[in-house]
Design goal:
With about 160 residues, the chain is of the alpha/beta class. The chain has one domain: NAD(P)-binding Rossmann-like Domain (Rossmann fold). It is built from 6 helices and 7 strands; from the N terminus they run αββββαβαβαβαα. The strands form 2 sheets. It has a 5-stranded mixed sheet with strand order 1-2-5-6-7, with helices on both faces.
Length: about 160
């Protein structure tokens, strides 16, 4: 928008970690792939075909596509399952922490993202590899837009 002071590629080039928080149909080509080479790339996007309708990706996870479009990036699916209004207040609310999920194929990258989730006041819960764990989190998946406490999320993941 009008308040952007630099191109996203310039900002991403200086970052150690990049979070994609744009509409899914704008992800491909947003950044030159070399800009995120060897960086943690958090896919916080959701693929929709229309309002409230998950996109048909032919059985692929949206994060599988992100990883394909940005080869060499260390993609972690996270920060996408909670409605923004819940996200804005839940990390500072009292009581048991709500879960935010991570899925990825690089353990160190998931640890980094889990640390950020903890710092935001949420409980990080690992859903596994990028493909299978990412599908659990994307629209239409069983964890999408379900605010679960840490205990509820861990119980769900364990069975």
């Amino acid at each position: 928008g009008e308040h952007v002071q630099e191109h996203p590629a310039e900002a991403a080039g200086r970052a150690d970690l990049v979070v994609l928080m744009v509409p899914f149909d704008q992800v491909r080509g947003l950044l030159p792939p070399h800009v995120v080479q060897d960086k943690v790339l958090v896919d916080a996007t959701n693929a929709f075909a229309g309002p409230g309708t998950p996109a048909d990706l032919g059985g692929r996870g949206s994060s599988d596509l992100v990883a394909e479009w940005y080869p060499g990036a260390r993609v972690v699916k996270s920060l996408n399952t909670m409605h923004f209004e819940t996200l804005a207040v839940a990390g500072t609310a009292g009581g048991e922490r709500l879960a935010h999920f991570t899925a990825g194929d690089d353990g160190k990258s998931k640890e980094i993202v889990a640390g950020i989730i903890s710092d935001l006041g949420f409980a990080p819960v690992d859903t596994g590899p990028l493909h299978s764990g990412g599908i659990l989190q994307q629209p239409g998946g069983p964890l999408f837009n379900r605010p679960l406490t840490e205990a509820q999320a861990l119980a769900w993941i364990s069975h």
